[in-house]
Amino acid sequence: MSVTTLHRPTHRDALEALSAAFERGEMVTVFGRCTVEYDGRAASSLGAGDRLLILKPDGTALVHTDEQRTPVNWQPPGSEHRVAVRDGRLRVRSERESPAETLDVRFERVHQLSALPVTGGRAVDVHGSEEDLRQRILQNPDLVEPGFEPAATERETAAGPVDVFGHDDEGRPVVVELKRRRVGPDAAGQLGRYVEALDREVPDGAEVRGMLVAPSVTDRARELLAEKGLSFVSLAPAAADDGGVAGAASTASDADEA
Amino acid sequence: MSVTTLHRPTHRDALEALSAAFERGEMVTVFGRCTVEYDGRAASSLGAGDRLLILKPDGTALVHTDEQRTPVNWQPPGSEHRVAVRDGRLRVRSERESPAETLDVRFERVHQLSALPVTGGRAVDVHGSEEDLRQRILQNPDLVEPGFEPAATERETAAGPVDVFGHDDEGRPVVVELKRRRVGPDAAGQLGRYVEALDREVPDGAEVRGMLVAPSVTDRARELLAEKGLSFVSLAPAAADDGGVAGAASTASDADEA
DNA sequence: GGATGCATTTCGATA
DNA sequence: TATCGAAGTGCATCC
């Protein structure tokens, strides 16, 4: 089993090759001059030009130009690809329902078409996520604050699940919100919502404390935290020399870094 | 000028073809059995398997498997691609600074390599964005509320720029936050921050009203809006029969749709 | 299927 | 360059 490639195929030959590749569950690339129309959650139109179309067996469609990481047009997994020759053009239509959306790629000319038999692992191992930061804290709660004792993760509240819930050295309830990178105003708002929600749920008079744990904060976020009486702790998912991931660690309760 | 393709090239031939393609500013696809290592904002590792590597002349690198819309690994535009043969493997390294990150793709075997000369438009025309929603409201402010009079867009506040600022039929200041799709708690928080900020800036006693304009809201967002005394108006970027974009329009101040 | 929040989010606009 | 917010965000998870 190997790569099948057609150079400057007729539309009819391209159609047959595409159908055969779909049948075999292969990934397909089509490079050629085309227009692209999308209609669904929004609507878009793209004039003629040379682009690379990638069709995956899971229903994903990607249209790439020679710039940007993001495809200029696409269709999510779960869509259905169909091919036809109409008005002298090779039309590839990718469609899905719920939400209803359609991607139409019309090739005036196909420069190259390849069917790629893909095998092998897809599972990528990522380090330095928010989950790693949580593990780090559960292993060493003093990083949040001396005497901090975690009680639960993903604790449910009316405002949603709290990353880490616990108590400080005086027994006061503490809500910890984790972010793997520098945070803006949204994170401060999120933490505020959690604290407010728990303030109502916790019966006894003890006030709920809120702590944002992240590598750093923006000025505006810092102001918001101050207004709401929330704290910030500078901490990254992994120490710089502990996993190759950039980011310094510090436990000063009101220090951060640019 | 046309597509250059190599089938099962030697690593040395692949290296030469890649270098030549970079030189010519062409986009390149490499399909083969490889491992991938990433290190930068996070870190990741991917075992051996067949994948499609796309290298763009703007410095973008994408590694795609046969599933998902999102590449399994990537490097953003502005990175620099380099090629080498080491330890019997073809190594493609894509690197950038600020933030420092590196993507390493090591091919044990290259099934196919293509250099694609890309030309033509890249500008896609998208309809149904938040900007369209704003235009719709400026054209017909009554859609927000009878008597609403827009005064400024992107009005600056201490909490950031407000989508639309204006006054109601009684002269009270109104902050309008627009969303092109169904909104959750974050949008309610965002609007709340703007209203609070303006409440301080506006000197006279008139209380600032906040209105969230979107196709619909989630329950929790609705509760948050109620708590903060903010209103909701159901409105989509375009009427369903007005631009092919899904979404109904309605001006009921406290109605929405599932 | 909807809701919620993380993401190597990406991306553009702005100060 | 950093900040901020939009995006056809994508995506997993939990209900």
TrEMBL record, chains A, B:
Residues covered by the Endonuclease NucS C-terminal domain: 129-238
Annotated ranges, domain Endonuclease NucS N-terminal PH-like: 27-115
Gene Ontology CC, one term: cytoplasm
Keywords: Cytoplasm, DNA-binding, Endonuclease, Hydrolase, Nuclease
Subcellular location: Cytoplasm
Its EC number(s): 3.1.-.-
GO MF annotation, one: DNA binding
Lineage: superkingdom: Archaea
Family assignment from sequence similarity: Belongs to the NucS endonuclease family.
Function according to Swiss-Prot or TrEMBL: Cleaves both 3' and 5' ssDNA extremities of branched DNA structures.
Name of this chain's protein: Endonuclease NucS
Species assigned in the record: Halolamina salifodinae
